[in-house]
Amino acid sequence: MVLREVAGEHILIPVGKTAMRVKGMISLSESGSLLWSSGKVASSSMRCSWDGKPVAPKAKVLWKIRLWDENDVCGPWSEATFETGIDKWYGQWITGNYRVNPRKRYPVDCFRRRFQVGRVAKARLYITACGVYEAKLNGRRCGDFVFAPGVTDYRKRLQYQTIDVTDLLQTGTNELTVQLADGWYRGSTGAWGLVNQYGTQTKLLAQLEITGTDGTFWRLTTDGSWDWSNDGPIRFADNKDGEIYEAAAQPSYRAFAAETNHPVIPTASNNVPVTEHEHFCAKLLTTPSGKTVLDFGQNMAGYVSFRLEAKAGQNITLRFGEMLDVEGNLTQKNIQLTMKNHTTPLQQIIYTCKEGLNEYKTTFAVFGFRYAEVDTDIELKPEDITAIAVYSDIEQTGFFESSNELLNRFVDATIWSTKSNSLDIPTDCPTRERHGWTGDAQIFFETANYLFDYATVVYSNLWYSNNPAVMEFPPLFLSFAYMIFCFVYYREYEQKTDAERKEQVVQLVAQQQARHMENVKQMEQELRMARHDMRHFLNRLALSINSGDEAKTNEMLQSYITYIDGTVYKTTELDESLPTIMLPSFEEVKGNKKKYAESFKVQYGNCDPFTAKRLAEPYG
Questions:
Q1: Does the N-terminal peptide bond of residue 149 adopt cis geometry, omega within 30 degrees of 0?
Q2: Cα–Cα distance for residue pair 429/443, rounded to 1 Å
Q3: Residue 159 is inside which H or E element, if any?
Q4: DSSP line for 175-207
Q5: Cα 334 → chain centroid
Q6: What is each CA distance from 148 to 132, 152, 169, 276, 349, in whole angstroms?
């Protein structure tokens, strides 16, 4: 039996009957006092739940495990550590000092706090945000993760991160800076790039606790004394659309932050962080249209970094995509949706250079791509730019290799698909959507579980009901997918002896059923209306075909395609007695705009405004 090092509650699947012993100790105490021991437990399971007393806040715990195989041969101890969180927040939520217009997008907020400390023995930064943040102490990044605090339903649950910043502090004056972007909270999400899903005001909460070598204790918290401005280099940042960056700009911190509030008390993060992983060099291509394209050789979710010399004011525009079209030019048609002047996702970086050396790495955007089209007058070498894969820090546990190269590539593509769709939440694509719809994920979950320790990605998104797709959208199939996800998770990762967790699954399923069964009647009505429309359409289509009118037939088919493209709508009341739109041809609509506009308003008057606008377009 081959064993890997165990960290936390990673899954091992040995052969035969095994036993395990788990020993927890507090490592901050010189005495090394025992907190809890499971003893030697005969079991075929590798799972073990903490059965000791609660550990005090801000305590560091050493977690040890060793295994006996089917021959009762004992393996060596494996160790991991964790640290418990804080029990009280002393600071205030802060936000940018400006009045928010929900129809506008804003530059990244920049916060700063300067302070004095003596010689430091230990320092921890506890931090979270409604948005996504990047914190630095004395110009050095706090933590190795990105896109924190991650995606959640910010109205119900909000994770915070604990960062060891001891080595980043210096005796004397220190400077803590934080950049805050829209992220999932206020940025574009979903296929059509809806904004302000969880709120319109991004905000930050932080608490820095420092213990000196002489026992002195300092606590620094966010409040109205922090400096603020939004005139830094990142002029625009969006998860999907990208960044606009002006290298010469520096934040002035000309004003103070505004104090605000948030109704949710943050809880310690219980999922693995999103981190940078594989790095890829580029191959330079010239497309048939004469464009310069960088080929990184791997489709991934991630971003780029570059380092080059330039003159002040020179520009670089990078446009990212997954494929080349049939002519060999970069295309984004496979990922983009367009309505009038609105196209999403843009997946682009617009960078304005400063004089001399320019160093850049994307901070608040992630793209699905293999290729990047470059538009610049700067001489760009392939070695100047690097692609970086970004995904949750999941551990690969399944490996495969055969003599069939095509089969090997198929498995490798599956592995990369898992990585690219595991950025803090399971998604269906790393480009257009940024929601955990769970429909695709519940089908793929067993495969992902075989290839990776996937519990670390899905755990917080299931048990704490912070999946935005399930909480916000009515389609019943998403509800059922979510329940299947819960069941498969329980089957794969939880043991039958865990009665409490099993009861949680049962309760979750019951709650989801109750929440969505009220939509069944509505959906049945929608289906009846759709069937009625379809019967009418097919009768008209048959008549058109029998008459030999090819132009009319094609027109009707195009009309149907337009109609189908707009059938994903959200209603609150439906009644069979309402008039229905009978799939008229474009010519009929043009001649009777008023009639069909009124019909539309009656039938779809309860749609949300965005969907209503989209549905109305085919009818003038």
A1: yes
A2: 14
A3: strand 159-164
A4: EEEEEEE-HHHHS-BTTTTB--SS-S--EEEEE
A5: 20
A6: 5, 11, 21, 13, 21
Closest of 533, 558, 554 to residue 545, by C-alpha = 554
Classify the phi-psi angles of 147: left when phi > 0, otherwise alpha if psi is within -120 to 50, otherwise beta.
left
Q: Which amino acid makes up residue 457?
A: V
Which residues, at least 6 apart from 528, have a Cβ–Cβ distance to it below 8 Å?
A: 576
Coil, strand or helix: which one is 391?
strand
Distance CA(187)–CA(130), nearest Å, equals 11
Bridge partners, residue 179, by sequence = 110, 134
List, in order, residues 6 or more apart from 417 with CB less than 8 Å away.
Answer: none
Cis-peptide, bond into residue 345, ω within 30° of zero? yes
Strand, helix or coil at 224?
A: coil
Query: Is residue 566 packed enough to be buried (19+ CB in 10 Å), middle (13-18) or exposed (0-12)?
Result: middle
pLDDT of residue 515: 55
DSSP letter for each residue of 483-503: HHHHHHHHHHHS-TT-HHHHH
Distance, in Å, from the CA atom of 482 to the CA atom of 167, rounded to the nearest integer, reads: 43
CA neighbor of 372 nearest in space, from 299, 422, 432, 314: 299
Residue 310 parent element (H or E): strand 292-310
CA 306 – CA 555 distance, rounded (Å) = 50
Give residues with Cβ within 8 angstroms of 240, minimum separation 6. Answer: 187, 188, 189, 193, 344, 345, 346, 347, 365, 431, 432, 434
Residue 466 CB contacts under 8 Å (≥ 6 apart), including other chains = 152, 153, 156, 157, 460
Cα separation, 297 vs 389, whole angstroms = 12
Q: Is there a contact between 282 and 300 (Cβ–Cβ < 8 Å)? A: no
Q: In whole angstroms, what is the distance from residue 63 CA to residue 37 CA?
A: 10
Task: Determine the pLDDT at residue 612.
Answer: 40
> What is the rounded distance in angstroms from the CA atom of residue 4 to the CA atom of residue 7?
9
Which of 534, 219, 480 is closest to 542 using CA atoms?
A: 534
Cβ-based neighbour number of residue 340 at 10 Å: 8
Q: Supply the pLDDT for residue 511.
A: 61
Burial of 472 from C-beta contacts in 10 A (0-12 / 13-18 / 19+): middle
In three-state secondary structure terms, 512 is: helix
- This prediction's pTM: 0.77
CA dist 108 → 105, 366, 391 (Å): 10, 16, 23
Tokens (6 digits) for 20: 């395990």
**From the first residue on, what is the mean pLDDT of each consecutive set of 10 residues in the chain (620 residues)?**
29 37 42 75 70 83 81 83 90 96 95 96 97 97 95 88 96 97 92 88 97 94 97 97 97 97 92 94 95 96 96 96 94 87 92 97 96 94 95 92 87 92 87 75 81 78 48 47 67 56 58 55 52 59 67 61 34 31 42 47 38 38
